[in-house]
Every structure is written in structure tokens, then in C-alpha cells.
């Protein structure tokens, strides 16, 4: 080791300019990184070591170590390059990397920053972290938009250490080169892609293959090769050719079901065991290879007139395997994006396959999902933009009735400077906005020229979940988008006087966060009633709340209690309580086959705590209460802890899961099943209130919080009342 250096300078990642050259400097990492003219720099969490032991090339490599507790930050090294001549072109950052065993979330990173501020591109390989202890080359391909200011490249390490060497940045050509434009599918090509989607899921999730496969590249190459198959025989040959490097014993035939192969030994066999499916480190879900006692395979028919047989148990993949490279029929400058037809089709293939095999609520939603794939493929083939394709992915998730389901990227950092609500069949301004001349109770008649009702119906049609959650989501989506986006509104006061407004979406923050005027997060409402807004209060606020003088408590759960731990319930109980079952499906066979399906219950308990509050308790709720909020309210309902007042909750509980699709799109879904305590379904229904309350336009005009007022009325009129169950 030549020299150890701990860096305390700010990283270019955080905005400090580094260099002024159009080309990458010191690409072989031969220069001391803390000299005055150093070009590779790290953040305060980084220890850099110029290492002359085992460089990939030249005299030295750069060792990057994280000097931070896991989960508390990351180490990173970077170099800044002016965008200059790269504007409007695609660049590739490539470097050799090797990783110290036991390190976590190591990856190259590349960011493109705009002259006007913000970034147009970021990739830190979080969806494909590097783990190999031997030198291997990795790369990131990125478009540099016209109007870009600089490109930042480097290495990020969340824990442990890694080495980087032999870096380069290359101009691959103009943006868009090699992209395929919209074109409809034929009946034959659609069947080909349906067959590919099914077999892709079987091979990826259930056929043991060595690590480090770029499965998104497999999907892209598969669409390239398989869509054009002219008949069943050609489809069969294309499928075998594509998957041969990953599943060499796969059989596909256009002449009937392939026969069972002769298996010489059952020793050393392994198979996949999925608890959910692991897509991210430290998630609730795990995927692991386990020992298998006997040979087992999967066989059946696929669309397009072919049949297959795929082993589910194979000899444990050996070490030192070099994953295959799946070439795309594209120019070197091609980067997967929503502008490209192949990317869109591949993203549907990957997204549909993971949901088909691991979505936990098919027993609840019935046949809604059965025919989801063909229209999604057809729509993806003709989508004309990223935004249009995001809608395709959204419509794919609608049959799941999953309030957690979402797709991206979607820029929702801006919002209108007020809240609104759908009340009595009207879109109603929920608060006064003096600067705009708006008053609570004013009606929004049209949004961007479209009747408000029609706009809400359209947005609701792009959302998955219960009716109440889809309405809630539509209200939020209609008032949000990129900062600066113009929104045209036609509004009228209760007397019918109409006028037009042209507004720009403002940066979010505390702007109009609530649809009703609530008291401070912790408030004494008089008559011994303590108010606690769990959606705004912190843990410290809750600890400081004065329960000693209270005879009743109102907990506001109209939203997500992100800062509050469930242990607050311990003061409201005198016996141990538990959550509803958190059921994670353990799958060893695809398509949710009952023969390979068991359930793991991840429920947890809460013991009673002190001091105990023995007063009456009310919980306020509505469709904004989702997921964790429903875990809490489910406990309240099951153990008669308090009265629930308001409207039904969202109806979506269970930890989420996420996959990154070709083109960088994200797909999020609920990864486990959570019923109510009595085994009645929660999914798509929600938890009903004991006392239903609906807002009125008249009440909004008077700045009333109808739900809170109903709770106060119940407490004051029923001094000795007990929970209504």
C-alpha cells in the first residue's frame, strides 16, 4: 500500500465543481487524490487509498472505503466533467471494479446536471450492485440533454470497501440513435411475446442460474429476437437460443410436450425458495437457493403453439462463471428508454412476470388479472412517449386493486397552493387562499378545459386500489406535477360567479398539507379531551403529551403516521396484543401453484405499557389512512381499543416490494397479504368506521372539520359510553 488518505472535502456529488476538461482525467488512478489539483475526490464518509497491490492496469488502483456506520450514509468518489460537446449525445462511463467481501451496495454512478438546476439523469447501480471480488468492467450509459451543465462520474460504497481502476468516458453518438418507433403488434408477434413473458418468469425466478445476470438485458434481447418469429417452429428455436446460456437443459418444442430427461444423479441439486421475492437488500423478502432431494421440472404449453420443459432443480451453479452478454440489435448509442418500442415491451414482460408469480392477493381479486398481459403489450407497442408508457404500466396494475401499486418515474414535486376535496359530487376548494381570491367552499368546475368530474374519473382509471383510495389518489395527482407546470382552472363561488385562473405548481413543503383545518398536532380541546394528530406529531411530541389531565383522547389517523411507532398503543391496553397476520407466501413453483406454496406469518406483538391511559379513546380516519395506518387501526378494531369515526380506510396493507424495469421504470406492489384479525378481507375494502361521517360543502364553507366535530359530539354527549362493538 502506497498511501492512506482520509478525505474531508465536499464531494462533487453535493455540488462542488472539480474540473474543466472535456475528457476524463487520471483514468488509471495513478495520482494522489488529496493534492491541490486532485481530480478524483470523495465525501466526508470516504477513506481513499492509492493501492499498488493488484491494480487492474498501470501502477495503482484506488481503494474506496466507507468510514460510516451502515445505514447512516455512504462513501463516494467522483470527478466532474463539463457537458460541453456531449450535449445531445449518449455517453458511456466504464471502469473496472472489484469488491471487498462483505461490502454492501457498491456501484458506479453517473449524474447529469442541467444548467437551469436539477438533474436529468442519475444511475448508481442500486438495482444491480457489484459484489465480485475479482476485477470486472462495468458501465453506465446515459443521455446528456441539450442544456446540461456537467457530468459527474465515480464509485459509491455504502459499507465496506471496493477498488476502481481503468476508467473511461466515451461518446456513443446522438441521443435516439437505434431507437425503434411505435408500431402495432400482429396477432403472431403478440403471441410470441406472451410466450416469452411466461418463460422469462419461469427461468428468471425458478430455474437456478449463476449470479450477476442482467435480467433486464435478457428481456430487451428477448423482445428483439422473439417478436418476429414467423411460426411456432421459429418461436421454439428463438426461445431455446435466447435462454441456452442461462438454462442449458430447457426444452421447447412446436411438436408437443418434450419428454422427461434422464437424470443421472440427484446429489447436489438446488432450487429457488422465495419468501415473497427479494429485489432489494434488507427488505422483508428473501430469495435463496436451497438443497433439493429429488429432480423436479415444470412442463406445459405456451402461447404461440409451443410447449416446454424446464428443470426447477439443477446442480448448484459453480463459481467463476462469467455471465453471458445479451446483445441488442441497436446502435452503440442506444439506451433503453420509453422512447424505444423494444424497451417498453421488455418492461411489460418483466413487470407482468414478477406480478404473475409473486403478487399475494390473487385469491382476493379473482379473475381481474387473467387477461392483463395482451392489452399491456399491445399498448406498449404503440406508446409515443415516456409519459404515455407510464400510463400503460399504471393500467397494467389496475386489476390488482392494490393501493400500494405505483410506477415511475413521475415528477410530483410541485403542487397547487391549496387542497381540495370531492364533496357532494363537486370538486371543492378546502381552504381560503387570499392571494388567489379563493375561499373554502368554492367549486372547481374545469381543470385544463376538462370537466372536474371527467378529470377525476380519468385519473382514477389509472390508479389501482379501492374506490376510496383511487379517488384520494386522483385528487392528489390532479393538483401535483413538475414545479412550474401551468394548470388552468375554472372556479365558481357558491353563488355561481365563475372565473378562470392560470396557476403554476409550487414546490411542496408545508403548502396546504391538509384538506381540513386541524388543531395543532398535540392540543387540549377542553372538557378533558386531548387531541393527537398521529400524521403530524413526532415521537417526542407524543412522549410530551399530558395525559394526566385528560379523560378522553382523540387520535387523528387521516393520513400516514410516519414518525410514530406502534408502541404508543401499549398505554391503551392491559393485555398483550398482536397485529393481524402478515402473511408472506413461500414459493418454490411458479404461477402461485398450491403444490409449492406455504405461508410464513410475520405478525408482531405489543405488550402493555405504563402509565396506562384509561380514558375513552377515539380514532379519526378516512381513505388517506393506508398500510401502516391500517395496521394500527386493525388492532384498534380487533381489541376494542377505541371508537373509529370518519370514512373507510384505503384497503392496502403489507410491506411493499419494488423492481426496476428496463428503461429505469420502477414498479411497486404489495408483497404480502394482510387480512383483518377475523380473517375478513381488508384488501380493496379497508376498515369501516364505527360512526360514518361525510363532509358537506356547507361545512367546508364554515371551515368545519366534520369528522373531528363528530368525535367531540360523541364524547361530550356520551360521557360514559364504551366502544361501539
Characterize this entry briefly.
With 725 residues, the chain is of the alpha+beta class. Helix content is 20%, strand content 28%.
- The strand line-up of the biggest sheet is 1-3-4-11-6-9
**Uncertain regions: pLDDT < 50 for 5+ in a row?**
1-22, 721-725
How many distinct domains? 4
The number of distinct β-strands equals 39
Q: What is the percentage of strand-forming residues?
A: 25-35%
Which percent bin holds the helix content? 10-25%
Q: Rough shape?
A: globular
Major sheet attributes: 6 strands, antiparallel
Given helix and strand content, the structural type is: alpha+beta
Provide the residue-averaged pLDDT.
90
Number of helices: 13
Please give the alpha-carbon distance between the first and last residues.
72 Å
Radius of gyration: 28 Å
What secondary-structure arrangement, pairings included, does this model have?
Layout lengths: L2 E4 L34 E2 L3 E6 L9 E6 L8 E8 L6 E11 L4 E11 L4 E5 L12 E9 L3 E12 L1 E14 L12 H20 L8 H12 L5 H12 L7 E3 L15 E7 L10 E6 L5 E6 L3 E6 L2 E2 L25 H18 L3 H4 L7 H10 L3 H12 L8 E3 L5 E2 L4 E4 L2 E4 L13 E5 L2 E2 H10 L5 H12 L1 E2 L4 E7 L5 E7 L1 E2 L14 E3 L4 E5 L5 H6 L7 E5 L20 E2 L4 E5 L9 E5 L3 E2 L9 E6 L6 H11 L4 E4 L9 E5 L5 E5 L20 E2 L4 H5 L4 H12 L8
Parallel strand pairs: 29-30, 30-35, 35-36, 36-39
Antiparallel strand pairs: 1-3, 2-5, 3-4, 4-11, 5-10, 6-9, 6-11, 7-8, 7-10, 12-16, 13-14, 13-17, 13-32, 15-16, 18-38, 19-24, 19-27, 20-21, 22-23, 22-25, 25-26, 28-29, 31-34, 32-33, 37-38
Helix pairs in contact: 1-2, 1-4, 1-6, 2-3, 2-4, 4-6, 6-7, 8-9
Amino acid at each position: 500500500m502506497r498511501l492512506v488518505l482520509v478525505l474531508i472535502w465536499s464531494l462533487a456529488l453535493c455540488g462542488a465543481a472539480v474540473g474543466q476538461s472535456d475528457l476524463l482525467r487520471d483514468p488509471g488512478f495513478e495520482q494522489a487524490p488529496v493534492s491541490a489539483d486532485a481530480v478524483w475526490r470523495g465525501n466526508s464518509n470516504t477513506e481513499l487509498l492509492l493501492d499498488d497491490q493488484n491494480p487492474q492496469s498501470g501502477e495503482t488502483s484506488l481503494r474506496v472505503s466507507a468510514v460510516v456506520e451502515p445505514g447512516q450514509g455512504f462513501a463516494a468518489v467522483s470527478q466532474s466533467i463539463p457537458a460541453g460537446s456531449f450535449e445531445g449525445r449518449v455517453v458511456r462511463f466504464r471502469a473496472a471494479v472489484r469488491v471487498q467481501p462483505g461490502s454492501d451496495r457498491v456501484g458506479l454512478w453517473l449524474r447529469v446536471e442541467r444548467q437551469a438546476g436539477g438533474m436529468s439523469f442519475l444511475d448508481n447501480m442500486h438495482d444491480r450492485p457489484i459484489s465480485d471480488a475479482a476485477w470486472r468492467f462495468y458501465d453506465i450509459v446515459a443521455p446528456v440533454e441539450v442544456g446540461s451543465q456537467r457530468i459527474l462520474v465515480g464509485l459509491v460504497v455504502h459499507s465496506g470497501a471496493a477498488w476502481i481502476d481503468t476508467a473511461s468516458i466515451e461518446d456513443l453518438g446522438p441521443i435516439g440513435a437505434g431507437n425503434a418507433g411505435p408500431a402495432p403488434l400482429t396477432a403472431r408477434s403478440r403471441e410470441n411475446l406472451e410466450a416469452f413473458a411466461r418463460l422469462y418468469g419461469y427461468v428468471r425466478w425458478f430455474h437456478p442460474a449463476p449470479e450477476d445476470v442482467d435480467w433486464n438485458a435478457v428481456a430487451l434481447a428477448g423482445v428483439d429476437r422473439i417478436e418476429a418469429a414467423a411460426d411456432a417452429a421459429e418461436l421454439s428455436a428463438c426461445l431455446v437460443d435466447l435462454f441456452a446460456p442461462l438454462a442449458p437443459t430447457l426444452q421447447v418444442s412446436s411438436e408437443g410436450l418434450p419428454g422427461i430427461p434422464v437424470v443421472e444423479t440427484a446429489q447436489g441439486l438446488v432450487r429457488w425458495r422465495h419468501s415473497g421475492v427479494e429485489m432489494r437488500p434488507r427488505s422483508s423478502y428473501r430469495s435463496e437457493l436451497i438443497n433439493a432431494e429429488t429432480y423436479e421440472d415444470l412442463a406445459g404449453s405456451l402461447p404461440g403453439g409451443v410447449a416446454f420443459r424446464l428443470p426447477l432443480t439443477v446442480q448448484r451453479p459453480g463459481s467463476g462463471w462469467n455471465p453471458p452478454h445479451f446483445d441488442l440489435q441497436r446502435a452503440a448509442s442506444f439506451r433503453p428508454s420509453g422512447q424505444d418500442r423494444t424497451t417498453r415491451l421488455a418492461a411489460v414482460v418483466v413487470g407482468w412476470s414478477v406480478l404473475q408469480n409473486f403478487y399475494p392477493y390473487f385469491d382476493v381479486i379473482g379473475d381481474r388479472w387473467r387477461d392483463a398481459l395482451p392489452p399491456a403489450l399491445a399498448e406498449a407497442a404503440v406508446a409515443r412517449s415516456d409519459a404515455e408508457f407510464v400510463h400503460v404500466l399504471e393500467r397494467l396494475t389496475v386489476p390488482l386493486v392494490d393501493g400500494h401499486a405505483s410506477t415511475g418515474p413521475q415528477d410530483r414535486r410541485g403542487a397547487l397552493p391549496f387542497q381540495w376535496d370531492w364533496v357532494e359530487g363537486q370538486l371543492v376548494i378546502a381552504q381560503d387562499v387570499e392571494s388567489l381570491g379563493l375561499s373554502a367552499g368554492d367549486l372547481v368546475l374545469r381543470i385544463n378545459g376538462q370537466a372536474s368530474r371527467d378529470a377525476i374519473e380519468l385519473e382514477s382509471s389509472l390508479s389501482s386500489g379501492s374506490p376510496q383510495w383511487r379517488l384520494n389518489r386522483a385528487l392528489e395527482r390532479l393538483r401535483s406535477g413538475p414545479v412550474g407546470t401551468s394548470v388552468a382552472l375554472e372556479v365558481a363561488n357558491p353563488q355561481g360567479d365563475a372565473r378562470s385562473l392560470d396557476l403554476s405548481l409550487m414546490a411542496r413543503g408545508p403548502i396546504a398539507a391538509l384538506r381540513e383545518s386541524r388543531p395543532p398536532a398535540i392540543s387540549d380541546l377542553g372538557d378533558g379531551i386531548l387531541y393527537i394528530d398521529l400524521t403530524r406529531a413526532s415521537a417526542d411530541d407524543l412522549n410530551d403529551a399530558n395525559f394526566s389531565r385528560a379523560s378522553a383522547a382523540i387520535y387523528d389517523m387521516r393520513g400516514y403516521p410516519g414518525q410514530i411507532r406502534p408502541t404508543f398503543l401499549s398505554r391503551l391496553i392491559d393485555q398483550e396484543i398482536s397485529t393481524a397476520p402478515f402473511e408472506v407466501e413461500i414459493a418454490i413453483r411458479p404461477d402461485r401453484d398450491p403444490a409449492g406454496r406455504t405461508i410464513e406469518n410475520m405478525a408482531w406483538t405489543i405488550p402493555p405499557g405504563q402509565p396506562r391511559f384509561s380514558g375513552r379513546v377515539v380514532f379519526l380516519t378516512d381513505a388517506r389512512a393506508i398500510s401502516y395506518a391500517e395496521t394500527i387501526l386493525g388492532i384498534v378494531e380487533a381489541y376494542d381499543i377505541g371508537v373509529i369515526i370518519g370514512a373507510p380506510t384505503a384497503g392496502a396493507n403489507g410491506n411493499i416490494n419494488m423492481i426496476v424495469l428496463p428503461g429505469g421504470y420502477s414498479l411497486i406492489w404489495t408483497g404480502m397479504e394482510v387480512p383483518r384479525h377475523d380473517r375478513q378481507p381488508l384488501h380493496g375494502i379497508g376498515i369501516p368506521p364505527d360512526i360514518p361521517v361525510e363532509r358537506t360543502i356547507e361545512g367546508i364553507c364554515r371551515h368545519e372539520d366534520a369528522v373531528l366535530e363528530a368525535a367531540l359530539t360523541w364524547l361530550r354527549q356520551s360521557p360514559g359510553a364504551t366502544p361501539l362493538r
